[in-house]
Amino acid sequence: MRFNNSENYLEELTFDDVFLYQQLSSIESRTQIDIKPKSPLSTTLPIISSNMNAVTGKRMAEKLARLWWIWVLPQDMEVDRMLNIINYVHSSDLRLDTPLTVNENNNIRDAIWIINKRSSQTVIMVDANNEPISIFKEQDLIDKDEYTKLKDLVKSRKLIVWNENISDEEAFNIMEDNGISSLPIVNHIWQLVWVLSKNDSVRNEIYSPSLNKNWQLDIAVALSVNGYKNYIDEIIKSGVNTIFLDTAHGYTSKMLDAIKDVRDRYNDIIIVAWNIMSGEWARDLIQAWSNWVKVWIWPGAMCTTRMMTWVGRPQFTAVNESSVAARENGWFAIADWWIRHPRDLALSLAAWATHVMLWTLLSGTYESPGDIKTDSDWKLYKENYGMASGKAVSWRTNKLTKFEQAKRERYKEWISKSKIYNVKPLWDIVDKFRTGLESSISYSWATDIEQFHDKAIIWVQTQAWFAEWTPHGKEKR
Question: From its phi and psi, is residue 311 left (phi > 0), alpha (psi between -120 and 50) or beta?
Fold first, then answer.
C-alpha cells in the first residue's frame, strides 16, 4: 500500500478519511480473485466473528465455520458450556445444517418460539423415533390459533427426504422441482440427522469450510488474561488450536507475561493478543511470542472507552502502523471495530491487516445468540450490547456476593444495549463482504490479498467528498 501523497503517512486517519484509487486492470472477472488469507489461521475468508456475548454462540459458530470464517467464543462463558459448544461444533457436518425439531404434541406456539433460531426459518416435526413427519415454514403457522397441535397441520402430501450422500446440485434441483426450501436429511434407519436449505446448497458450492487439523469445523476461544490459567488446559485438550488473550488494555506487563506463559506451555498453538493501536505495541507483543495482535481501542455507541478515557487513535492509521510492524516481525494483525461495510474490510486489508473482526453487523442476524423480540410497533429486532455494559457485567459477576457485585458495577459503562432492526440471514452479510472485497481487489489490478497489500493506492478525501460518495436516499423500514 502507498499513499498518493507521501505526506499523508504522517497524518492520523480513520476509514472515512481515505479511499482506494482505481488502477488499470486486465482482470476480466472478479471470480478470478483469490481472497483466502495467506496465514496459519484456518479461515478461507479474512473475517472473524467477535467474541461478544451478543454475537457468537453455538449457532453462529457452526454456520460461520461452514462459510469460510472462524468464530471466537466469548471469555464470559462457564468452562462446561464452552466445552459443550466446542464438542458440538467439532461434531457438526461440514456442509449440512443442524435441524430445528418439534414433536407431534407440540403446538404452533412452540414452533414459533424456535423457528427464527436459523435463517432457513424451518422446523421439522419428528416422531418418537426421530423420524421426520412434516416440515413447517413460518407461513404455515401464521393466522392460526397458537395452541393448535402441529400434528393437526400435517399436509397429506408425502414429505420429501434424502440421505447424506446427496450432492448440493441434486438437492437444489429436488427442492426447485418440488417448490420447497429445505430438505430433511436422514440416516440409514430413517432418523433425521441434518437439514439442507436451498440457499445453503448453493453456498456450499461457493464457500469452503474452515477446518482444523482433524478436518473438523474450526473454532477459536477468547480467554481472559486474568483467568486463562483456570481453563486453558481443558480448552486445548478439547482440540482448540487458536487462543485469543483478551483484555481491554493489551499493552501491559500482565499481557506480555501471559503470552510467554502460554507459549512455554503450548508451543504449537496460535496466540492472538489484544487490544493495541501502534507499531511499537505490535512489535513487543509479537516478540513475546504472540502470533497475531488485534487493533482497536473502543469507540462507538456500545463501547464508550474512548469517550470515557480519551485514549484512542484513528483506526486506519492504527491498523496500518500495527500491521506493518507485525509483518516486519514475521506475524500479522487483525483490524477490529468500525468494520461496517465491505469498503472497511478492503481498506483494512489494503493497510496490511490479514483479517477483520465483525461485531454489530453479526449481532443482528438470525444465527446470533438471543431471541428475536418485537418492539411496541411489532417490529422485529435483536439486542446488541457491549462487554462493559451493565448487562454483561451482571452476567459476569452473578456468582459473586451482592456486595462484590455492587463494587464491580462501578466499572460498567452506562450504555447497556441497543436494538438491531432488519434482522437478516448470516449469509447475506457473508455474500456482501465477499463480493465487495473481490471488486475492491480487482480495481487495484490485484488477483489476491497479498498483491492487494502491495498494489493498493490510498488517497485522502475531505468530508464533503465522502458525503458525495454515500447514498442520499432514506432507507424505509
Answer: beta
